[in-house]
Amino acid sequence: MMLRGQMMDMPLLISDLLTHAENYHGDSEIVSRTVEGPIHRYTYRDAAKRARQLANALKDLQVAMGDRVGTLAWNGYRHYEIYYAVSGSGSVCHTVNPRLFAEQISYIINHAEDQVLFFELSFLPQVEQIVGELKTVRHFVLMTDRANMPRETSIPNLICYEDLVNSHSDQLAWPQFDENTASSLCYTSGTTGNPKGVMYSHRSTVLHAFASSLPDSLDISAQSAVMPVVPMFHVNGWGLPYSCTMNGAKLVLPGPKMDGVNLYELIEEEGVTMAAGVPTIWMMLLQHCQRNHLKIHPLKRVIIGGSAAPESMVDQLAEHGAEVRQLWGMTELSPCGTTSTPKFKHNGCNTATLRHLQGKQGRPIYGVQIRIVDDEGQPLPHDGKAFGNLQVKGPWVLSQYFGRELDDNHTADGWFNTGDVVNIDADGYMKITDRTKDVIKSGGEWISSIELENIMVGHPAVQEAAAIGVVHPKWDERPLMVVVLKEGASATRDELIGFFEGKIAKWWTPDDVAFVDELPHTATGKLQKLKLREMFKDYQW
Ligand code: ADP
Q: Which residues form the AMP-dependent synthetase/ligase domain (predicted)?
């Protein structure tokens, strides 16, 4: 007979994260660079009070449980308040990526049926452009104060955020409901086809915050000052607005300015100990430091994810005293899946071994299960050699896309197909060789485009590089390296090809190099390989 445990049955709710921070880390700071210009500084206590005021305002705007509320916003305190006010009320905080094309933005807002749209001053022209297309939005709120409201606009009954917050009381008891209630929504960038919505729950978000805070995950504590450079409009800023609140860490939000100069200034002035973002961001920061002979002081750790972290970047950050940890994740995973953190047995290992580990996407954080299968769906060994399609399971992994019946992303026994091609070693460390659709197949064998790119950006003259497979009469496909050189730098084809010597198997070496001024990127800053392959489809060897 089943004997029931006798512990309190309490739902895991997002509002409790903020209440905890208010009660026990009330004076910890949230510092934001604003669109309007100045740095804004307040505490978790202030944020909690304003989130309650905003929740009361949402009630007045007749936002009901389950209603979707859209945002077009940077990483800043107002966006943070919206996260908590909306989800805390039982409605759904739908972060929209403002870097998408206008048609994609209106598609996403209409598909989600957003009732209210909060947006920042930077996006006023974009919203004015699409306002006629938005079928369900009842209220538009501009996230600014009275002084910055536009004199004229085509947006009907535009509400001023500060007026809305200030005209409401901060007296509110957060509603209690089932922890499986939807909390937030994020669409994947959709490199192919229309974007697909991932609907998170209170339970998945709080569990993800617990697990991602662990020392071997992102290691977040009340002693940290954390700067999420990864946007809050993309996968909830890797969950940092939740995990930092859970732990009472100081939050440093860079707003619209994610360039080297501004990030460097924030890190130094706010004593940022940990920062998280995609490789492009760190490339800009490191270039700024190099050009101006600057040293980064307080930063202890940099979390790099979204794309592979090149070894040269890991080395350079180490020179500044910052340890790099790779994070692998996906919108569908809330997003944290694996981190490249060493184990006890690696203590005291040499730099080469450490770099080898850091070059992998990492081992699963507790809660995430991973496996690899071949094209027939048969599980493959975890021996660090066999590579196949990565599948995952876990309480913060998507079970179904929002508003879609058809699902070809899950196996019959409930594993989610990630679309990444990887190997997993005996210690559980996973290494991505490619996205399924990006692998280069030469003579029936896979060549890792990611590996080629990582090596190529280690060349001092190379700013950015992409390896693609181009049709070849004998080998089916051979790798072509498409390169953007650094400003003022020069390098020949032969020099760049020679750079691979001794670093990889000979047959992996790209057959040719094409020089371009820039590479195509998706709205989330990833290389758009599909577009690149189209650009080079008529390429002759
Ligand atoms: P998108 O919406 O563009 O798919 P995601 O952030 O969900 O954006 O992208 C997830 C994908 O990004 C992963 O499936 C993987 O291919 C890639 N990715 C994420 N983290 C890493 C990493 N550390 N190294 C290499 N690739 C990564």
A: 21-402
Q: Name the residue at shortest CA distance from atom 11 of ligand 1.
A: 330
What residues have CB less than 8 Å from 396, skipping those under 6 apart? 200, 204, 205, 207, 208, 211, 333, 334, 336, 367, 368
Give the CATH number, domain containing residue 117: 3.40.50.12780
3-state secondary structure of 170: coil
Nearest to 104 by CA among 73, 126, 119: 126
Q: At which of 136, 171, 200 does a domain end?
A: 200
Q: What is the pLDDT of residues 89-147, one digit of tens each?
A: 999 999 999 988 888 899 999 999 999 999 999 999 999 999 999 999 999 999 999 99
3-class secondary-structure state, position 129: helix
| Beta-bridge partners for 362 | 430
DSSP 335: S
Specify whether 332 is catalytic.
yes
pLDDT digits 0-9 by tens, 287-324: 999 999 999 999 999 999 988 888 999 999 999 999 99
Q: Is residue 330 part of a domain?
A: no
Say whether 188 is catalytic.
Answer: yes
Domain that holds residue 464: 440-535
Query: Atom 5, ligand 1: which residue's CA is nearest?
Result: 330
AA letter at 469: G
Residue nearest to atom 9 of ligand 1 (CA): 330
Question: What SS3 state is found at 45?
Answer: helix
In the predicted model, is pLDDT for residue 191 greater than 70? no
Indicate whether residue 142 lines ligand 1 (CB < 6 A). Answer: no
Token pair 């934001």 is at which residue? Answer: 32
Cα of 330 to ligand 1 centre, how many Å?
A: 5
Q: Give the DSSP per-residue string, 444-487.
A: TEEE-HHHHHHHHTTSTTEEEEEEEEEEETTTEEEEEEEEEEPT
